[in-house]
Automatic annotation (TrEMBL):
Keywords: Membrane, Transmembrane, Transmembrane helix
Keyword Phosphoprotein tagged: no
Protein name: DUF3307 domain-containing protein
Coiled coil feature spans: none
């Protein structure tokens, strides 16, 4: 039953979240966390209701009290973890640190949910917590797709933030500038050498895509990867990679964009494949 609470957590963290800028959330952490926690609590109450309906009429009053205890304990731990992350974000602002904090934050939330249910409901073994009813499989699959879309999107945004190409945006058009140096050496008859250094600067202009369209493409890409893995169709990955590459073919002439695209695509594919493997084992 813990999987419903984890699904509630993912919905609260990635779907029903605040779009306010990071700096504003850091300026008013307690106010923002209070609203965030209220959303999580409501979602956990919904999750508890699903558990109650699923086990009705065998579910007792003591079971309801245990679910209430779980909601309170998870909420308190959630507040502590998120408040600590906000404070650490202000200290460690490097890309690798931000990415590590994001992963640790999500892992701690998952561990809190697991150990809360283990402590309160006291299963015979830890593995007994991992039920395999049809409803739980559906909830687990929903978790995978949220992680593959929104969760991975946030992580990749953090990871690629500092290596994004130097775009100069202006009225829906952006410019990619690149510069390279060519050195030519000429040998004259008198034995002297003449070195010619040429600096070549190229500028390419592209119409800017709609806001967050790249993030949406990445979400669709990882969703398809997970689906291909679940359907045992790995050949679909090659088709997906070719299709995505064709849409950006001309921009590959810009070295910085090519490196950025390669890192982003490989990272996205790795995440999608790993989540696809997990999803395959659920069913």
């Amino acid at each position: 039953m813990w999987i419903y609470f984890y699904l509630a957590h993912l919905l609260g963290d990635f779907i029903f979240h605040s779009d306010r800028p990071v700096q504003e959330r850091h300026d008013q952490p307690l106010s923002d966390l209070g609203k965030h926690l209220a959303v999580h609590t409501i979602l956990m109450v919904v999750a508890a209701s699903i558990v109650t309906l699923e086990t009705f009429p065998s579910f007792s009053l003591s079971g309801l009290l245990m679910l209430a205890q779980a909601i309170v304990l998870i909420s308190v731990c959630h507040f502590i973890i998120d408040y600590g992350k906000i404070k650490l974000d202000m200290v460690f602002n490097k890309t690798i640190s931000q990415a590590f904090l994001f992963i640790m934050d999500q892992m701690l939330h998952l561990l809190v949910i697991l150990f809360t249910f283990y402590a309160i409901f006291e299963p015979a073994t830890f593995l007994d917590m991992f039920g395999k009813t049809f409803e739980e499989k559906v909830a687990a699959t929903a978790c995978i797709f949220i992680l593959a879309t929104y969760g991975s999107g946030y992580f990749l945004e953090i990871l690629l933030r500092k290596i994004a190409p130097n775009y100069e945006l202006q009225e829906g058009i952006y410019r990619l500038s690149d510069e390279k140096i060519e050195v030519k050496t000429k040998h004259e008859n008198n034995g002297k050498q003449e070195v010619e250094i040429t600096t070549i600067k190229t500028e390419q202009f592209f119409h800017d895509s709609p806001a967050k369209i790249g993030q949406l493409i990445g979400m669709l890409e990882r969703t398809l990867i997970v689906i291909f893995m679940m359907m045992d169709m790995p050949q679909g990955l090659a088709f997906l990679a070719a299709l995505k590459t064709l849409t950006r073919f001309k921009q590959f002439e810009h070295k910085q964009f090519a490196e950025y695209y390669l890192i982003g695509t490989l990272s996205s594919a790795i995440i999608g494949i790993l989540l696809g493997i997990i999803a395959t084992n659920i069913w």
